[in-house]
Amino acid sequence: MAETGTSTIALSGGQSTAVKIFGWLGVVGGALLIIVGIVAWIAVSNQLRAENIIVPDDASAFQGQQVAGPLTAFVQADIINHHALEASGGATYAELDREDPVRDTMMNASFLRASLFTSVVSFGIALFAAGVGVMFILFGIALIMIAPSRKTAAA
């Protein structure tokens, strides 16, 4: 007789119940992670929209669009850096003399870029949370499916 490569593990009624409970906890926890990820994404997007930042025409992409997502925020940070370096003759904040009047412009540009990059990271974390939520749900469903039902366990 040839083996099919499958094996069976017998679980007691309590073990089967525990596996199902952990499966449902995974499904619920995953759903919560997805909700938190969506709420965070919307909150960051709304805050960016409230600033009414429009990507300038000389940006590499998304010209004329409002900054409201990770890509537009990244492009806006890039063009701010481009404009700041243009104003400073290519020198960074740290390279400018302390008395140089352009240093304040470079400092403001640096702060703006850091804020925009923080929003880009926030979008990434929100997406990551939602992705982990999807995985939790899938693993939870798998646990629920492999745990024998009470009728099967009693037989």
Automatic annotation (TrEMBL):
<feature type="transmembrane region" description="Helical">
    <location>
        <begin position="116"/>
        <end position="147"/>
    </location>
</feature>
<keyword id="KW-0812">Transmembrane</keyword>
<keyword id="KW-1133">Transmembrane helix</keyword>
<protein>
    <recommendedName>
        <fullName>Aromatic ring-opening dioxygenase LigA</fullName>
    </recommendedName>
</protein>
<keyword id="KW-0472">Membrane</keyword>
<feature type="transmembrane region" description="Helical">
    <location>
        <begin position="21"/>
        <end position="44"/>
    </location>
</feature>
